[in-house]
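Example complex used in Figure S2.
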Amino acid sequence: GENVEQHPSTLSVQEGDSAVIKCTYSDSASNYFPWYKQELGKGPQLIIDIRSNVGEKKDQRIAVTLNKTAKHFSLHITETQPEDSAVYFCAADTGRRALTFGSGTRLQVQP
Amino acid sequence: GAGVSQSPSNKVTEKGKDVELRCDPISGHTALYWYRQSLGQGLEFLIYFQGNSAPDKSGLPSDRFSAERTGGSVSTLTIQRTQQEDSAVYLCASIPPSGLANEQFFGPGTRLTVL
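Predicted assembly (226 residues):
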C-alpha cells in the first residue's frame, strides 16, 4: 500500500519568514495530494491540493509543488503569520478514495 | 452551513467497556470515512462508506471495531471491549456527491480515553 513520509515533524519560524514542509510517497499510482491544516481541538481542514497532471499550484500565500519523478511534494507558506501556527498534514491518494496521511508537522510562527 | 458533527466530543471509559461514537455527515454527502488519530500521529484510515455499496473495512485494526451507516446518513463506530491502546481521537469525514473525488470535510473528532 501507499506510504507517506513527512518532515520536519516540528518547524519554528519568525513571523514574515517562509515555511516549507516536504513529503514523499511510495505508490507511483497516487494522483491526488491534499494538504490539511489542523488547529487545536478541531478536525483537519483542506487548505490546498494538487493533482498529478500539475506541477505547481498557488493560492495567495500558500503553494504546493509536485515532482512525480522523485515522488515528492512540498507545501510552501510565504509571509507567515501567527495564525498559520497549527499542525499540517500531507496526504496521498491512489484513487481508491481513502487518503494515506503523513505524520504531521507542527508549525510555530513566532511573533 | 452545518458541517460534519460528531458526538460525544470527549469520552472516558474503563478498559473492557464498549463505546459508540456517532458521526453526522454534511447533508447530501454520499461518502463517509472514519479515521483514528493517535497522539502526535497522522490519521489512520479505518473504514469507508459509499452510498449503498459494501463498506471498505480494510483499515479496521481488529474485530473489536465495527461501523454502520443507517439510511445513507448517520454513522456509528463501535469499539467493543476497549483497550488502553484504543485511546485516540476518532475523526469522521464526508465527501459531496458532485465534488472532486477526495475533498474530505472533517468533523471535530471524538477524543476517546480508555482508563
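The first strand of chain B starts at residue 5 and ends at 7. Chain B touches chain A at residues 4, 31, 33, 35, 40-45, 48, 50, 56, 59, 91, 93, 95, 100-109 (CB under 8 Å).
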